[in-house]
Amino acid sequence: MASEPHLLTERSRDREEDDSYRDLHTEHQVLNMGPSHPASHGTVKFVIELDGETIVGLDVQVGYLHRGFEKECESGTWYQAIPYTDRLNYNSAILANVGYCLAVEKLLEVETPERCQWLRVLAGELSRLGDHLTRTGAACLELQAMTPFLFGIEARELIWDLQEILCGARVTSNYVRIGGVKHDMPATFPAVVRESFPKIRELLEDFDDVITQNRIFVDRLRGTGFLSKEDCIRYAVTGPLLRAAGVPQDLRKTEPYLVYDQIDFDVPIGEVGDNYDRYLVCVEEMHQSLRIVEQCVAWLEKNPGPVNVDDPRVRWPAKGRVFNKMEELIQQFKAVTEGPMVPAGEAYHAIESANGELGFYVVSDGTAVPWKVRCRPPSFINLAPLPLMVKGALLADLIPTFDFVNMIGGECDR
Amino acid sequence: MEDHGSAALRGLLAAMPEAILETHARLGDATASVDPSRVVDVLRHLRDTAGLEFDMLVDLTGVDHLGATPRFEVVYHLLSLRHHHRVRIKARVGEEAPEIPSVCGVFASANWMEREAFDLYGIRFRDHPDLRRILLYDEFEGHPLRKDYPKERRQPLVGPRN
Known about the structure:
The complex is a heterodimer. Chain A has 19 helices and eight strands. Chain A is mainly alpha-helical. The two termini of chain A are 35 Å apart. Chains A and B meet through helix 3, helix 10, strand 6, strand 7 and strand 8 of A and strand 3, strand 4 and helix 3 of B.
């Protein structure tokens, strides 16, 4: 990893020493980039003030994908918000499902069965893998490296196949329920994991061989998009960006939720906080996620059990009982038509999503309709210091920096 | 008032008892309702006091308690990276011209989140360096997360802008 944190300014320093630049009386130029630009995945507009090719000012304009997530949540039942959470970060939908359900369960004071928690970790880590593969792959693509992108997408296909077996859907999975998950892992799942994981590891190795030491790739990433540890904390930046700056903050370790305290995995951190460190952190996190998934599968194979909490307030009774017993029929009817009644109060629960701290702040007035569902979106908050990361850099450095911020429109704009 | 075993609440109650209106720690979330005019002092105290060191303002949002007075509430969630503890600070603001001091001077992360609360709830943050709408466009009428904003309300068409 790079040990010199001042590379960002090196080019501008060269210029200052070069007299020919000083004699040129340049004027600043304003460039609009986006809202739909081929080099920025996601809909976002940059108003860039340029001096030649150097960025002097940047205004980031978000909101093009605003669909009123919070307003919509306030008009349905607590259950009906779960599919909306899928559509926040559509690269890692299950993590948002898990975050929302954990916040509501905290308010309900419901503890899910252990098997359910392992399944949630398993599904969430598959999601994280998909997200990181997309982020690193797309970053290569936007730096004109097509091959690693294809390796990444091929590996993501294998991950999505696993998600399909587990949840029935590849992208917007809608897998997690308040008090449980949609259904247990199919019996064929462990065999498919054992078959596809060597392939995924091989693809990650190919990815690594072709790009990690690539001269052009390293030159474009090392020393660009630098954000210091102190600035990360001031701007509440979390996730791989914060870890790349050298802060070992990972909610899976620092405030373990679900069964992460029983799982063996490492948290990679960077040294400098530039784009290259972010890339290395993401790659290592993928290997750690593979380890976590394998541990989950091993545990789930050995420990059968219920996946839903036995609590008529939140989960429907078993179908056999519904068809034969009056009380259960009424329970099912009320659960479907009204949804769970959540006691009045407020709760905040945060999980470590692929982009950082994904928190849900839920407020209930004691009815079956949420009073407020606030999503603390890591994409939105990590994007705010982007002007700081690219100030004084070249226009071309904006592309990899934006890639590694990994702003996902659905989550940023909600 | 009680500190509910939370170091943050204990520190606040000892340093500025007059600014704290109510505390609770239901469901394990230490929470203090504070006087809105003192919110900057409260957050600065939480950030700078040894033993508390809440160095990150992770979340800031509004809540509309339609029918209650004061109607709006601004909610701050703080995290300490060193001690791994959290605290929630709440401040109520009235319906008529809701306004509260900006905490951008204490936490840079408040900048965008305050713009969002202004955009969606119409709460003004005094001394904010750049209080513009962020998720919606400038011509948008009203503040959609207010409870009296109907979900199906139509907005006027806006022509292209240069």
